[in-house]
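User: Predict the full complex structure for these chains.
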Amino acid sequence: MDFLRVAGAQLNLVVGDIDGNTERIIDAMLWAEECQADVVLFPELAITGYPPEDLVLRSAFIRDNISALHRLAARSGETAAVVGFVDRGVGHRDDAGPARVHNAAALVAGGGLRGVYHKGLLPNYGVFDEDRYFAVGENPGSLWEINGVAVGVSVCEDIWVPDGPPADQVAAGAEILLNINGSPYHRGRGSERQQMLSERARSAGVPLVYLNLVGGQDELVFDGQSMVFDASGDLLYRAAQFEEELFWVDVPLPESGGDVPTALRVSDGDLLDGNPEPPLATHDPFEETEEIYQALCLGLGDYVRKNGFGGVVIGLSGGIDSALTATIAADALGADAVRGVTMPSRYSSTGSVEDSRALAANLGIAFDEIPVEPPFTGFLEALGGAFELTEVDVAEQNLQARSRGAILMALSNKFGGIVVATGNKSEMSVGYATLYGDMVGGYAVLKDVSKMLVYELARWRNRNGEVIPQRTIDKPPSAELKPDQKDTDSLPPYDLLDPILERYVEDDASVDEIVKEGFDESTVRRIAQMVDRNEYKRRQAAPGVRITTKSLGRDRRLPITNGYGD
Amino acid sequence: MDFLRVAGAQLNLVVGDIDGNTERIIDAMLWAEECQADVVLFPELAITGYPPEDLVLRSAFIRDNISALHRLAARSGETAAVVGFVDRGVGHRDDAGPARVHNAAALVAGGGLRGVYHKGLLPNYGVFDEDRYFAVGENPGSLWEINGVAVGVSVCEDIWVPDGPPADQVAAGAEILLNINGSPYHRGRGSERQQMLSERARSAGVPLVYLNLVGGQDELVFDGQSMVFDASGDLLYRAAQFEEELFWVDVPLPESGGDVPTALRVSDGDLLDGNPEPPLATHDPFEETEEIYQALCLGLGDYVRKNGFGGVVIGLSGGIDSALTATIAADALGADAVRGVTMPSRYSSTGSVEDSRALAANLGIAFDEIPVEPPFTGFLEALGGAFELTEVDVAEQNLQARSRGAILMALSNKFGGIVVATGNKSEMSVGYATLYGDMVGGYAVLKDVSKMLVYELARWRNRNGEVIPQRTIDKPPSAELKPDQKDTDSLPPYDLLDPILERYVEDDASVDEIVKEGFDESTVRRIAQMVDRNEYKRRQAAPGVRITTKSLGRDRRLPITNGYGD
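Assistant: Here is the predicted structure of the two-chain assembly.
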């Protein structure tokens, strides 16, 4: 039986680091050559990293990425390589936009550039803005010949539509489909992808290799999990999730019947003789809670590492959000890289310090206790005249939170390390957070994690080694900014709040629609207004890991000035 | 001579406020009826406000906007109205995006909806994301008959391309072109627009009416300046800049030769008899410096008003940025709505308090002096242990700036009023600003104004009544966070910095390209690195008025994690 040895380089690349990415690609090309692979796949826009955003608008950036492509083409050997890059091209758009480049896949082999494919379907929804940058590629049915096998190459979105470019390639005679990706993670995405890809391979009747990027890039986490399907749509191999991996699979080719299709020759060696080697044991996907946990670790870890920080600084309140944040940081970066800081005030419970200290000891992280009273008292003194005859209110509460934020930033400024904010998605959605206070930080690891999911993740993590004190999990949530304060003074209980937020924020459901599902109207209306009125806070929030179909980042673009629903 | 009496409702609408906008539209329809106008034009997406961003993804929002359209159609009379709204439609896109609605213009008359035009060219660059929301409209050559005149209706971008939908309409027999807009301001935009529109009318040989929105919406300012051109491309009328205006013009129609084109009838009254009335005196455009000043006033004013704030709180340092910010605020909102706060520290020059007091007196705004020493000392005390044996550095400087930020926010929390940040574009570009310190605020009026332009605006404003103390203009810029600090300790002089930033930030030029223009290489490289490395600060910055082709807002989308140029 004929087979194609297809290698995959599921790499963790860095946006903008053209030289570094190119070195990584060349190393993997040499590895694939040693493995006698017929072809090796690299992720979408591997040379530039993905998504390069407005770097693509710089002509020097395009030029540098094309120089890099020529460098690696010169290094190519008998193994053909499919490498994502930004290609110049005469744009053809139906509007007046400036896009004149393509999201492209180069085919290189034998020391040269053999061909280029232009992505045909450009996602422009959710977190994607590809119409902003790229012109639509038109390569209907174009095929490449690799060692006598007719290959259809496509890029990411191209495969998501049943009648997209790969369907044309199959119609033209493709014997295998190769699809390179920068496909970001969200909860449940892996199984959606597997189902879609299996269906594409099955209905095409040819094998399909899906190669994905891995790693964190600002708010996005690419989960890897590259997959290989046979011509029946059965999964032959799944690569690791959230980790780099180099792999190869001998992909059996279906019986070649009929004419040899017209294809541009990429490489003209011989296929390997003998029987295909069976694929390595496939990686099972993580169970959902662990998967989310791993996504958070990779997102935070890569943000910290790729931005050159030596460690993180985290304010520990004794509550569950900061405890989980510190735990994720310790797991992602190592305990040595984490500094926990408790900053008690006159309103802090004794538990807040003790539980924070216990957490720090369990994790083995550095721990500081810095009282917030001196600056808080200083603020009250400075404002004494202006605040004369006024009642104590949220102004004083926020001053405590802002004193803490400034202390964390001072530690960061003095000793290095990035401040990681601890707020969760439920709080951020309704604005139950102090801008420039507890929202301070360069990254917000739980920004897309609802409060109920925070609990679930904490319990899951404790089952794998108890680190978060049980009292932290059991105590009622509180900001501790005034005596006996509880979150439920201002918000519905989280097991009621979270489902409403999921409908309103993630599903764009209206108040009326949510009420029809059985929720109390005044509660829903109040929550919707809190969400709408706090857009200004989210606009100034730190980025955080996206784990849902709609995070509070680039995939949710609402006006601040907004008269709807008032 | 036949003429069409075309009215324009250059309104300041509110995004999301469907009910309020609809009332405003109905009022203007009644006014146009009284003026015996044949047709009245409203801005692009008048019913929803522009740009509605992700509100468009909510099905309830679409439904509410269509209900509003039917309400106002029912109120229409003999004057036909062209009203922007979001239409449902079967989307046809070349990718898998979710867009299923159209950016549309309704034609209403005689109590009903007579027709709908779908925008054909969707801008998806700069600040525009229309591919995210809208399907491309296909109405080649569609014409509307208004009182016997064949009319071509189009929306904004449609007219910017020489062979866009209006060209088809002219080919089909349009005797006049009506184009409705939500066209944002940037420096120089008005003359670009006038030149383009004049050319369109001239080459089409038919008159052209361009109706624009006016008002501020988050970062965008719509400048109004609606224009009417005759069939030779000569300007008949220009409406006011940065102000609402209802106007009408008797637009002479070219000799009707040849066949009556096929057109859908919108209204079937008679044109007015007699000679056209001459248009009112046209508004001359502002000279550039004043135009920018007016844009800043409208942007800030509308942000404050439309978000329901009673006033603003501004930290006054004695420097030119805060002085100009307070002056703009007083001009935009009235002196009573502005509270200036000076917050001296041990490093403040005596001038900083005196000059701030003089400015406040000149403007007639409220003025507080609140010393920053008590909280600053409190921070140093709290951090004494942690900072033991360390050198004084930027950590202590930032604590002063953050103490000031927290005081401003406390005043806002206690008394209402939005904090307006005072940083300029030069500082924000290179990150010469303290996150959570002087960057604190809900809006940043000078965010897109370079330092050199700050001086120009200040001098211009003083020529129209001296309010900014001369010493504030003359003193060397300083953050006053350590003894004898000057901006030039950390930055090149602004007359060198600003041209480099303009090339690097606004034009996306590379370091090499800028160096070739004669700038010192190490300076350019250092500035480019400062810009790139401070993306994280800008991501957490307040929005501000856009006045250039590339502000530091939605029109500049760079990754934070970015290995390019390192």
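Chain B touches chain A through 103 residues (CB under 8 Å).
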